[in-house]
Design goal:
Elements lengths: L5 E7 L3 E8 L9 E4 L6 H19 L6 E8 L3 E2 L2 E2 L14 H9 L3 E5 H12 L7 E6 L3 E6 L5 E2 L41 H12 L16 H6 L1 H6 L3 H25 L3 E4 L9 H15 L17 E4 L6 H14 L1
Parallel strand pairs: 1-4, 4-7, 8-11, 11-12
Antiparallel strand pairs: 1-2, 2-3, 5-6, 8-9, 9-10
Helix pairs in contact: 3-9, 4-7, 7-8
Length: about 350
């Protein structure tokens, strides 16, 4: 009788590596393991940390490393065919390197690699084990990422692994007082990410705090940086603060507006919203704002079926996987590829 096979999911972030192991049935074995990533120190330093994570995983699962039949690895950078295409938050030596091949040779285990948003999308699909349709993940954070899973659980990455850069679709919203398109960190103007991201939230907060109507606002009385002020907005919104609610409402509406064009292209049926607001006390209200923006832009057939008017053709849900979504997604992908 052959030994049972196990599959590891390794989620490499800017500061930590989160990892899990699943068995051949896709069930998690042992606890989630978290170690420092050391990505700024180069891929070799990170490889050592990945081995540490694997050792802790196998100990927690009470198995040997020889029983791991495949590894799914995700990185916070664009990649294609196991090669990093852009530096993002990584060290210089990552770019142009065949990361998945090098790690596979080092460990003696096959490795599949993708980016972090793709991994989280697969994780959200895997968690919804009764969902058989497609799934679009939209994840606001420091930037705005996304991932698309086809019916049956296969990730769509495009010809070069560069699909679903949804933060950089164009939206027609302009900024006061001169009604210009805001600049995005990518160098373009008018991107969705320039409105829906932590970076955008800081910019919008700075603009609003200059207005006379917010002159006496508690954040104007604070001597902290704009980054620290923006960090307080979620708590303020949860306590009913008018400025914080206004800013999140704007983000939700514009996010929904942009999603409408993505839905018109992909028709996913299910849109999952990730990011930190998934745990906010006002998350239901935020989702209503997303739907308002979506309804403003989406054709009626993308809102309700013309055959069954009570049936929604596009559903919105919050992400369920939390910090473990990407590592779960990569373990799921490894099982699909290497079982």
């Amino acid at each position: 009788m052959s030994e049972p096979k196990y599959f590891a999911g390794l989620d490499v972030g800017g500061s930590t590596i989160k990892s899990v192991i699943v068995d051949s049935m896709g069930e998690q074995v042992g606890p989630l393991v978290e170690v420092r990533s050391q990505v700024k120190e180069g891929y070799e330093a990170t490889f050592k940390q990945l081995e540490t994570a694997l050792d802790e995983l196998t100990q927690g699962a009470k198995i040997s490393r020889d029983q791991i039949a495949g590894i799914g690895l995700d990185v916070p950078a664009p990649s294609s065919g196991g090669v990093i295409w852009g530096k993002a938050n990584l060290g210089e030596d990552w770019v142009g390197t065949e990361i998945s091949k090098k790690l596979s040779e080092r460990l003696g285990i096959p490795v599949h690699m993708t980016n972090d948003c793709n991994a989280a999308a697969v994780g959200e699909y895997a968690i919804r084990n009764k969902h058989i349709g497609a799934l679009l993940l939209v994840a606001p954070g420091t930037g705005l990422g996304g991932g698309f899973v086809l019916p049956g659980g296969r990730l769509y990455e495009g010809s070069n692994g560069l699909a679903l850069e949804i933060g950089h679709i164009s939206v027609p919203f302009t900024e006061e007082p001169d009604h210009h398109l805001p600049s995005c960190t990518c160098g373009l103007k008018g991107c969705l990410e320039a409105w829906v991201s932590l970076v955008a939230l800081r910019r919008r907060l700075q603009i609003e705090l200059r207005k006379s109507e917010w002159e006496t606002h508690v954040l104007n009385a604070s001597g902290t940086t704009i980054e620290e002020k923006a960090f307080q907005l979620r708590t303020l919104a949860e306590n009913g603060d008018a400025l914080a609610i206004q800013l999140f409402k704007q983000q939700g509406f514009i996010l929904g507006y942009g999603i409408a064009d993505i839905v018109r292209t992909l028709d996913p049926g299910l849109v999952v919203i990730g990011g930190g607001l998934a745990e906010a006390k006002f998350r239901d209200q935020f989702l209503d704002w997303v739907r308002e923006g979506f309804n403003e832009r989406a054709w009626s057939i993308y809102r309700h079926s013309p055959i069954e008017p009570e049936k929604a053709t596009t559903r919105f849900e919050w992400a369920q996987g939390g910090d473990a979504a990407a590592s779960i997604g990569m373990a799921y992908a490894a099982r699909e590829l290497f079982a």
